[in-house]
């Protein structure tokens, strides 16, 4: 076993690797960028080395600096985590050339599976079923469009390099193929440095089911059963589970045998995942699944496999990379119970899952697992940490395990309802809505489920009178919640509130809220809200509200939802001009990738004005109304959250222009 390893990653996965290494008595070296100087993974590691500025291209993608850090600290091996350099064969070569061990597969194995088109040709030769489609080298648009017609619409354009839904477009009609291809190529180029694509048949009711495989350096390979990752938005996973609901013995046997065959075909060593697309339109059948791709690394969702098999996959990685045989044979790997993993992200589900930033002023996870269940929280952040625009906005992974799917799902719902995050827009309420969706609960899940139900799943219920009253009370300064059976009675002696009515003003979004706080004779506080919220009723808040105070704000929690109220600064002047409707602002930090219009152009409502790239994804900025462009950001401009991207000519000026 190694005595010291370097972890070439950050955040949640770096912390995950450190925990297992510590258990095995292995010392760890962290690497960090400017933005991560005070991060959790740096604090947890035995040593830490600074490798550059915040952008990934100047830090976490600098293989030379990472290898140099390993050599300087005496590390024997490098664990890549996932993302960044984890599937970069050139980095593996760098590591090996330096006399270090890469904790993962060989560069040859990664290259064999790194490009989807070549991988599918290899799998066909190995007897693994692949999706019908075009996986060739030629990339002329005429040829690709012709192949799409031969395959039959709808088709799926996919970047041949990388994954995570980037560079992927579904095309319903031949007339839309050219535009979709251009968009997919731009996104693929930005994300992976390779704009080549493949074209495949789009499966009508697709299930995304993947098999965890593990190989060693002695020619052995095993599977650790399957995971279902069909709950996706924008081709990115949201909630994963193991085993797959509705899995039949025949399909499991065929799929796991194909997965092991795929791993052995490339002499695979370490943790890997074989991803399959399954046609569930007629139920799960052994002849209706096809190879999609192989992830030659540990997956984000690996904890659900660990929960149902009782294994530590990171420990397996360290043991195999250090020269040991697989810890278990296939017959020793048993499947037990059911597990779910929910990905908690800083994102605005109601605005198309736009990534969000902010400081996590309040972060509280469930303290204990729901009765009859096991739970683990995988995170790389603490309260007070910032969600940076430089990296993936994941906050944590909430993982639960119970004896069966229904019990595990109940545990997931309970855990989500007990999670509290304030300071950034988060997707907790969306995850809870998905966990409660009747189709999801029944196991009738396919990759289109979230898209079909998106409006209902992302709907934001307005705050109730009780929620608003709790915020008003907290803003008054009387909402401190001491730890006792009766939090309000302990405040009865506070004479300032006897016979005094205190008026408070808050904002929820753009809405102004006003209310009065007074004390009842029994020492409890009463809140009366002004119209239009609750002009006739008052609330005395007998239950202790779940809330968090943070600079200039109060967040009240109701189940998995958090309602953030702004507490106005009485000394601050309102700036109505900043709220003018004659401009469009960047919803997040990003790069102006493409500009479709110019100054002076007349545009109509819904017309695409520009494309903003953020988090390696493209976001379309469209005209909210008819108008004339007065100013527009230039291509290549790096913008921050709130930057004016487009300014329209004022209505009177536009009218004058039109009459000339």
Describe the structure.
The protein is an alpha+beta fold and 660 residues long. Helix content is 26%, strand content 30%. It has 17 helices and 38 strands. The strands form 10 sheets. Strands 14-13-10-11-12-15-22-20 form an 8-stranded antiparallel sheet, with helices on both faces. Strands 3-2-1-4-5 form a 5-stranded parallel sheet, sandwiched between helices. α4 (89-97) packs antiparallel against α5 (107-114) and α12 (405-417) packs antiparallel against α13 (428-436). The chain is globular, with a radius of gyration of 27 Å. It starts with a strand and ends with a helix.
Give the helices and strands, then pairings.
Blueprint: E1 4-7, H1 11-23, E2 27-33, H2 40-44, E3 47-52, H3 63-73, E4 77-79, H4 89-97, E5 101-102, H5 107-114, H6 116-126, E6 133-134, H7 141-151, E7 155-159, E8 168-171, H8 177-192, E9 197-201, E10 206-215, E11 221-233, E12 236-242, H9 249-265, E13 270-279, E14 289-295, H10 302-309, H11 313-321, E15 338-345, E16 347-348, E17 354-355, E18 358-359, E19 362-364, E20 374-379, E21 386-387, E22 394-402, H12 405-417, E23 420-422, H13 428-436, H14 438-441, H15 449-458, H16 465-475, E24 502-508, E25 511-519, E26 525-529, E27 538-539, E28 546-550, E29 553-558, E30 561-566, E31 583-585, E32 590-595, E33 602-603, E34 608-614, E35 617-622, E36 627-632, E37 638-639, E38 644-648, H17 651-659
Parallel strand pairs: 1-2, 1-4, 2-3, 4-5
Antiparallel strand pairs: 6-9, 7-8, 7-9, 10-11, 10-13, 11-12, 12-15, 13-14, 15-22, 16-17, 18-21, 19-23, 20-22, 24-25, 25-26, 26-27, 28-29, 29-30, 31-38, 32-34, 32-37, 33-36, 34-35, 36-38
């Amino acid at each position: 076993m190694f005595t010291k390893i370097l972890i070439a990653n950050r955040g949640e996965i770096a912390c995950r690797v450190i925990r297992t290494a510590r258990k095995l008595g292995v010392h760890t070296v962290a690497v960090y960028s400017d933005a991560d100087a005070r991060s959790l993974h740096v604090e947890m590691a035995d040593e830490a080395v600074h490798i550059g500025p915040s952008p990934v291209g100047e830090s976490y993608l600098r293989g030379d600096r990472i290898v140099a850090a390993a050599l300087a600290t005496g590390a024997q091996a490098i664990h890549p985590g996932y993302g960044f350099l984890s599937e970069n064969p050139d980095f593996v070569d760098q590591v090996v050339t330096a006399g270090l061990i890469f904790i993962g597969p060989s560069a040859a194995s990664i290259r064999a599976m790194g490009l989807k088109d070549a991988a599918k040709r290899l799998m066909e030769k190995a007897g693994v079923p692949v999706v019908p489609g075009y996986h060739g080298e030629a990339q002329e648009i005429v040829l690709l469009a012709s192949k799409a017609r031969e395959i039959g619409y709808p088709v799926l354009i996919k970047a041949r390099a990388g994954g995570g839904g980037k560079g992927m477009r579904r095309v319903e009609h031949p007339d839309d193929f050219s535009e979709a291809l251009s968009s997919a190529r731009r996104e693929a180029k930005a994300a992976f440095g390779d704009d080549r694509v493949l074209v495949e048949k789009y499966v009508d009711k697709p299930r995304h089911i993947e098999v965890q495989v593990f190989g060693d350096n002695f020619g052995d390979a095993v599977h650790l059963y399957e995971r279902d990752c069909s709950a996706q938005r924008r081709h990115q996973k949201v909630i994963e589970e193991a085993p797959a609901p509705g899995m039949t013995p025949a399909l499991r046997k065929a799929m796991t045998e194909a997965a092991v065959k795929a791993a052995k075909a490339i002499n695979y060593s370490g943790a890997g995942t074989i991803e399959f697309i399954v046609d569930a339109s007629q139920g799960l059948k052994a002849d209706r699944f096809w190879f999609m791709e192989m992830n030659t690394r540990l997956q984000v969702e690996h904890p659900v496999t660990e929960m149902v098999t009782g294994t530590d996959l990171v420990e397996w990685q360290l043991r195999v990379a250090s020269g040991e045989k697989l810890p278990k044979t296939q017959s020793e790997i048993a499947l037990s119970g059911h597990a779910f993993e929910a990905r908690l992200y800083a994102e605005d589900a109601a605005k198309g899952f736009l990534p969000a930033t902010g400081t996590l002023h309040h972060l509280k996870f469930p303290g204990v697992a729901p009765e009859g269940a096991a739970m683990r929280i995988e995170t790389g952040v603490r309260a007070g940490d910032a969600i940076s625009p430089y990296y993936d906005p994941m906050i944590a992974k909430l993982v639960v395990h119970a004896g069966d799917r229904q019990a595990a799902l109940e545990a997931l719902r309970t855990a989500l309802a007990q999670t509290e995050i304030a300071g950034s827009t988060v997707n907790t309420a969306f995850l809870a809505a998905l966990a409660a969706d009747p189709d999801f609960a029944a196991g009738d899940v396919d990759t289109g489920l979230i898209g079909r139900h998106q409006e209902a799943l992302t709907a934001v219920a307005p705050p109730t009178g009780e929620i608003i009253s709790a915020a008003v009370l907290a803003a008054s300064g009387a909402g401190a919640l001491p730890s006792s059976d009766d939090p309000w009675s302990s405040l009865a002696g506070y004479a300032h509130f006897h016979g005094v009515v205190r008026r408070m003003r808050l904002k929820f979004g753009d809405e102004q809220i006003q209310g009065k706080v007074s004390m009842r004779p029994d020492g409890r506080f009463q809140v009366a809200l002004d119209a239009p919220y609750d002009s006739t009723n008052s609330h005395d808040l007998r239950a202790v509200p779940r809330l968090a105070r943070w600079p200039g704000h109060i967040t009240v929690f109701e189940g998995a939802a958090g309602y953030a109220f702004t507490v106005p600064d009485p000394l601050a002047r309102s700036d109505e001009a900043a709220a003018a409707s004659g401009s469009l602002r960047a919803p997040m930090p990003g790069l102006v990738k493409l500009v479709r219009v110019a100054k002076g152009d007349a545009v109509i409502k819904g017309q695409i004005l520009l494309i903003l790239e953020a988090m390696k994804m493209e976001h379309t900025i469209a005209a909210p109304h008819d108008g004339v462009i007065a100013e527009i950001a230039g291509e290549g401009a790096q913008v921050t959250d709130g930057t004016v991207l487009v300014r329209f000519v004022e209505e009177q000026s536009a009218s004058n222009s039109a009459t000339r």
